[in-house]
Amino acid sequence: MEAEAVPSARPFSVTSEVGALNTVLLHRPGDELRRLTPRNNDQLLFDGIPWVERAQQEHDVFADVLRGRGVEVLLLRELLVETLAASRPGRSMGITAAVDARRIGHGLAEDLKAYLRGVPPGDLARVLMAGMTFDELPFGPDATSLVRRMHHGTDFVIDPLPNLLFTRDSSFWVGSKVAITSLALPARARETSLTDLIYAFHPRFLGVRRAYESHTAPMEGGDVLLLAPGVVAIGVGERTSPAGAEALARSLFEDSLARTVLVVPIAQNRATMHLDTVCTMVDRDAVVMYPAVRDSLCAFTIRKEDDGTVSMYGPDPFLPAAAEAMGIDKLRIIDTGLDGVTAEREQWDDGNNTLALAPGVVVAYERNENTNARLTDAGIEVLTIPGSELGSGRGGPRCLSCPLARDEM
Description:
Layout: E1 21-26, H1 52-68, E2 72-75, H2 76-86, H3 88-98, H4 101-104, H5 106-117, H6 121-130, E3 132-133, H7 146-150, E4 156-158, E5 171-174, E6 177-180, H8 191-201, E7 209-213, E8 224-228, E9 231-236, H9 242-254, E10 260-265, E11 279-283, E12 286-289, E13 298-304, E14 310-317, H10 318-326, E15 332-335, H11 340-348, E16 355-358, E17 361-365, H12 369-377, E18 381-385, E19 402-406
Parallel strand pairs: 1-2, 6-7, 9-10, 12-15, 17-18
Antiparallel strand pairs: 1-19, 3-4, 5-6, 8-9, 10-13, 11-12, 13-14, 16-17
């Protein structure tokens, strides 16, 4: 019998927030979440200790909803294992990023690197994601290592990365190019080393070009909204700096990936850590938005002119500036909640953080009943998923996903 032909992989390209989603990168939570304790959860950016098995079940529901709508789901752990198996330089890159001689001393670092070079790909992937404690070191104590003598056995020699499930932040796509970000907080800084080596060495991504790389200016994917082809909004607040926003804007202009960039200042606090915590697109001309900021949110408009020069305007009110840049009369606004208290609660529970699967079709946490009802009343199809445990790290369906391919608008 003749073998069945394997369908060719879809090309990677994202030019909007709402074009039909074809391929997405997720990370199913794993052992890295089991590293969270009451002693370290604040430092590792979680508001509580998640029930890992339930978080995995919730994530599986999310992935199944996407697959049920024809979306190809790629899982970060699987890609990482395949990369480590296929590429010796990829293994070296991951190990070098994880083992910090400045923190654990040169001798211990060299011993640990030597050990990790011989670890099977699956086990190495676990260490790179879930970390390693001093008790888990594969060799006995060295009487000359002050680092080992002065650390508790449960301290981390390699830190875990429990925020990996929020794949939106460490990379995002603009057109056919991927942007590798610079995560602002120490607890997340190493995440980009894993996405970087996957994009660099996994066979599926060979030949992919980079839109932006910065190892200095903070820039996170949750702050980047592709409002329309050629129109990008960048939030500046707790996680993305003005320098990061400016660097991304100039890079997008140089690569002809955008003609207009709106830089949007947001409050520098936990509740509004990214632009997509207060506003996400749910249709070609519609956003769900936290009402407390709808009238105060402003934007600096940066535009690449026809002669190649770059102009800056504003700040002006965000909503009309966005509509003008998108070439529409106005944006339809769907408020989070029905009153101030409900809106504040549902904004905190990621009611604004929806993932569009197509124009007018979004995935949202089921707990945000008022916001979901308002979306439905506005003609938006809402696919709900559980999120009681997934949301403990402050992130909704958009945060949990990195679209790799969408239909053109």
